[in-house]
Amino acid sequence: MSEVVSNHYLEDLLKTYPPQHTTSALPWLRQLRTEAVDRISALKMPTTRDEEWRFTDISPLTEVPFQVAQTIPQLQPAEIKYHYLQEAATRLVFIDGQYASALSTINNDSGIIVGNLSTLLTSYSAEIAPHLGRYASFNDNIFAALNTAFLHDGAVIIVPRNISIAPPIHLLFIATQKEVTSYPRCLIVAEPGSHVTVVEDYIAQQEVAYVTNSVTEVSVADNAHVNHIRLQRDSHQAFHIANCTATLAHASNFQSINVALGARISRFNLNVQLASEGAECTVNGLALIKKQQLADTHTFIDHIKPNGTSRQLHKCIVDGASHAVFNGKIMVQPNAQQTDSSQTSRNLLL
């Protein structure tokens, strides 16, 4: 894939940049978007010549600079009810990247802050600003930069100190239209001593080509516990690029499960930072693909402080001419004494 093609792809996407993003009423959000646009201008699309992408050719993606959906269909609850997670008391539904309030159910009786980003900014800017865009770096990541530049709707979950939410919170992202790009954004903040389970779920209404470019940021404070389950079952003609970053404070615990079933080409980058002493994480992944699918998973677990524990298990089951990639890295910083870390990869060719 030539760099000329890459530049044209990015130029075509930036032509669709919403003008209202440059006049946001919130200076910090306007600045965040501006920085992301600046980075897009300085970056290029990755190719197989880049070490991190040498097994994953995304050149087909550059042939489809799809725009953001201008309108979304008015789905009825009965049409998507079979996708609902019955145990969830709170459900946020997004259609082609845009929030669908009529299909969503919000239960914040426990005091949690949960809802759509663009709606919550009015009342909770002070709670959101210290976290949004602070963990998922877009300095060298073109897809994270694009997501941040086009940032508008998104799922926000802030669990107050010492609050434990037993039922899972379901984030349902539904793709309904062909030849559009959506930019899902999720922010999960667990304050000290809190406990929450979040299911991030991507589905398709029909087998058509589209692009999903998602970013999820997770902040786990002292002694907090977050279970993050991510299920990707997009159309087999779609492209799915995802970045997730979690930062862990003292004695916190982060449990991650990622399952990739759909998409023609999918890429999932997970970065976990054990930023304080005694943090723990468990990262499990599964790619179950067939025919011509390509599923690429990259993980980076960074032990920054002492006495951290990490466990990772990734499995790939591939059939037909499909192609699965797993690249797992563990970094133990000089000051991270008494680190306990392990990684296992299991693969099956059908």
Task: Describe the protein's architecture and organization.
The protein is mainly beta and 350 residues long. 15% of the residues lie in helices and 40% in strands. The protein is built from 5 helices and 18 strands. The strands form 2 sheets. Strands 2-1-5-8-10-12-14-16-18 form a 9-stranded mixed β-sheet, with no helix packed on it. Strands 3, 4, 6, 7, 9, 11, 13, 15 and 17 form a 9-stranded mixed β-sheet that branches. The protein is globular. The two termini are 30 Å apart. Mean pLDDT is 93; it is low at 1-5.
Q: How many strand units?
A: 18
Q: Globular, elongated, flat, extended or rod-shaped: what is the shape?
A: globular
Helix/strand structural class: mainly beta
Oligomer: single chain
Helical stretch tally: 5
From the alpha-carbon coordinates, what is the Rg to the nearest angstrom?
Answer: 19 Å
Observed structural traits:
disordered N terminus, 15% helix, 18 strands, 9-stranded mixed sheet, 350 residues
Question: How would you summarize the topology of this molecule?
Answer:
Layout (H helix, E strand, L loop, with lengths): L2 H12 L12 H16 L34 H4 L9 E6 L2 E2 L13 E4 H12 L13 H8 L5 E5 L9 E7 L5 E2 L2 E6 L4 E10 L6 E10 L4 E9 L5 E10 L4 E8 L4 E10 L5 E10 L4 E10 L5 E10 L4 E10 L7 E10 L1
Helix pairs in contact: 2-5
Short description:
With 350 residues, the chain is mainly beta.
